[in-house]
Amino acid sequence: MKKVIIFLCTFCISPFSMANADTLQSQLSAIHQAESIGISNIKAEQIRQDKIEARHRAKLARIVSQKRKQAEQSARLRHKKALEKQKRLDALHQEKVAERLADKYRDQEYQDKLRDLEFKSKMIAIQKESARAARENDFIDVELNRQKAKTDILQSEADATRNVSKGTQNLMESEGRAKEDANSGWFN
């Protein structure tokens, strides 16, 4: 737009100069000069517009570069957060696996101790039975002696009862003879 105004101004000024000019040559020279000024003004305006556009392109390139850098930085941050989250999840998973394994080992250890205890109990029972079997004759002798002692006690009680009965019988017989002897005499 500026180019057109400059061109018109130059064109408007040129008729006034033509009136004063004597010759056609001077008029053509003035037109040529105005045309040169207009062209140089147009070129200057074009250069100025090119500089403005170059600044705009440079500014746009900087903005695009900044946006790209921000996007890359954001992507790196998201990737870093994702890695940290994955590490936390992996650590949590490892912790749970370790906890399950510890429970499993504790349970296995408990089962092993329980089997060991059962085994020892059975071994003690077997040893007890072995000792009992090895000393069975002693147990038999003790049992026989116990039964013999019971028999002796019963026999002693029977003998004592028999002796008391015999003593009572003898006493009664003696008393009976004594009464007979007392009654059989002269002075009775």
TrEMBL record:
- Asked if the Swiss-Prot or TrEMBL record annotates the protein with the keyword Signal, the reply is yes
- Which region is the signal sequence? 1-19
InterPro entries recorded: Uncharacterised_YfgI (IPR020231)
Could you list this entry's UniProt keywords, alphabetically sorted.
Signal
User: Which portions of the sequence form the region Disordered?
Assistant: 156-188
- Pfam families according to UniProt: DUF5384
Q: What protein name does the entry list?
A: Uncharacterized protein
Which species does this protein come from? Answer: Photobacterium carnosum
State the organism's lineage. Bacteria, Pseudomonadati, Pseudomonadota, Gammaproteobacteria, Vibrionales
